[in-house]
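Pilot study result, target chain (277 residues):
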Amino acid sequence: MTQPKNLDPFTSPKTFYGAELRRHREDAGLSQDQLGERVFCSGAYIGQFESAIRRPQVAFSKQFDDTFHSGEHFQRLCRLVHEAEKHPEYYADAAELEKLAKTICEYSPMLVPGFLQTEAYARALSRATQPLASEEEIERHVKTRMDRARQLLDPTGPKLWAILHEAALRITVGSPEVMREQLLHIAEIARTRGALVQVQPNSAGPHPFMMGTVLLMTFDDAPSVVYSEGAHSGQLIDDPALVERNQESYDLARAAALSPEASQALIASATKDYTTP
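Predicted structure:
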């Protein structure tokens, strides 16, 4: 069972939510398993809320309020947590699950996957997609992306597999210098086995994931999920049938992609195109 040892409730809204949930549960004389039975989830799931591992959810917050007769206390705290999120609302739940994932497989049709991006690439991309945002907003977004990359690429993080379409190598984001640095960065991560990287060449033709980014996540003790993202929107999918279909499509993308070695060669070739004579 997950125990929130030495949890400082004032570190963030999420830790305060977890500490409050633990306090109310213990005051009611309930174990994590017993509370889980009342709100239809596992005791381990309750432990993840209390440890600030998992992001609070509106539906569970209402059930906690009903169980503890606490008015809208947990619902208000839930809104506070959501408002303080670094990630967009549509991506926040997926961001939480990434921290728990055993493996993450990503397909990116047009851009370099976020966890492979350099700071310069992320900054140029943010400025292009948010032209009215302030420099402060841009830098906050870049920092969040770099923090995510460090977490995922840490040796203790999930196993990573990225398939990117050749278009991601050819579309200039920022400048030729930014792109050259970016492609060298991808090659270095692949070379040091920080992630398994494949490129799907233009010659592979149409494919199921042409319309947006897709992430497949597996876990040690929970069913797999899929996160799909388009422009300014995203969807977390846990329906087993849809997860299976996405897994089949990802397997097809793997088959159509170049081998890791051939992908490295294509990345090296594209890098030369951005080299100033």
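One observation from the pilot: The radius of gyration is 21 Å. A full batch analysis is planned for the follow-on phase.
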